[in-house]
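Write out this protein's structure.
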Amino acid sequence: MSNIMKPPPEYSTPPVPDYARFPDYSRYSQPPRKSHSGVWIVLSIIALVSIFGCTLLAWGVGSAIRTFGGPAIATDQYYSAIKGQDYARAYTYLGPQLKTVFSQEAFTKMAQQRDAVDGKVTGFSFSGIPTGDPATVDVTVTRMNGTSYTVHLELRQEGGAWVISAFDHI
């Protein structure tokens, strides 16, 4: 029985010598980067809320200035024009009701007559912040000859602007 065939030997891939193997660089590589998309989403939301808040704040401040500061600003600008004898500019602060009573020429003539009698306006002041619509403002006016008197103004908001709707003196 020596003629019996032996099974062929199993073939396998021959062993690769160490110098021919591809080096394992995985132990030297950096760990995978973490995603920061959550951070960017949170920062974007904070930025949008901040922009919205600033816009709302600016609108609120503007509204407050128009409502509460408007009569004071209009009064100051009106009397600054009177003080500078710019009666055409002062006339622009009168409301439509007063403009039907006084033409610009009549208003200018009335103001110039007052200047001729008591001297030009050298100063004016009012205290407090007028509120409400209509707003009333008591203005102390000082003239060149030293006289001071109080002017009672009524202001209304018309067309988004504060205008003088009534006065008792210039």
